[in-house]
Amino acid sequence: MATSTAKSKSNQTLDPLWRAIREEVALEVTEEPLLASFLHATVLNHKSLETSLAFLLAAKLESPVLPSMLIRELITDAIDEDKGIARAIRADLQAVRDRDPAAHHFSRPFMFFKGFHAIQIQRIGHWLWHHDRHVLALYLQSRASEVFGVDIHPAARIGNGIMIDHATGVVVGETAVIEDNVSMLHGVTLGGTGKASGDRHPKVRKGVLIGAGAKILGNVEIGTGAKVGAGSVVLQDVPPHVTVAGVPAQVVGAADTDMPALAMNHSLDCPEGNCDED
């Protein structure tokens, strides 16, 4: 028993993010006793961020077809085999904490933000996909879509430090690529044109910011550090470090920073404030 306790304390010491989550949740227990049972079961009863997340996601995705315990085991197996998943989880959580003004803690996005949850279950589905367990990967995609309202194909390639704010209505197609440190809002589609096959979805490079409701369609490239305005429809490649907006999207100015995803400034940076000016 003493050895087990020592290991648990060691895990918390070596993982400052997990320690911060536990400290925040311990305080929440005292402030909101009605949720004490939930907070203990979800966070405080676990020895690591990984086991806590597996419990949380399994509780959300369980069904008569696939019970919670089997989903927990599946998530744990994936994380144990692919150490990159654990690194990605932490980078995504840090991204939410740094970029979302509503995230004043690590614990609240960890427990409640469905954009974060949807990305993590896609990472498990991606692991399954590359182990030729396609049917199970697609089943998890379907359940995540039902539960979170976010539809991300398990074959899509997603980097680290991704933030999907609010997330409702986000769709990411099979051959899409999202590189590191990308931010997007709800209603974004990274989709096909409806007539192409094969490699048919967008490639979003590092540091890109995509506004709410933007639709990026086809095998187009959104260059490093670009910004896509809310409600835009992008049908052609976007050069690096520019802002595009409109239907169809056109360049309306330079991005205001090298990495718009980190700054989360959704202004269009239009010359003299007139996006219609030639």
What is shown here, in short?
The chain has 278 residues and is an alpha/beta fold. It is built from ten helices and 15 strands.
Q: What brief labels describe this structure?
A:
serine acetyltransferase, domain 1; five-stranded parallel β-sheet; alpha/beta; six-stranded mixed β-sheet; globular; UDP N-Acetylglucosamine Acyltransferase, domain 1
What would your notes on this structure say?
The chain has 278 residues and is α/β, with parallel strands linked by helices. The protein folds into two domains: 8-149, serine acetyltransferase, domain 1; 156-278, UDP N-Acetylglucosamine Acyltransferase, domain 1. It has helices at 2-14, 16-31, 36-44, 49-61, 68-81, 83-99, 107-112, 114-129, 134-148, 260-263, and strands spanning 151-152, 157-158, 163-164, 171-172, 177-178, 183-184, 189-191, 203-204, 209-210, 215-217, 221-222, 227-228, 233-234, 242-245, 250-254. Strands 3-6-9-12-14-15 form a six-stranded mixed sheet. Strands 1-4-7-10-13 form a five-stranded parallel sheet. A four-stranded parallel sheet has the order 2-5-8-11, with no helix packed on it. Helix 5 (68-81) packs across helix 8. Residues 1-6 and 271-278 have low confidence and may be disordered.
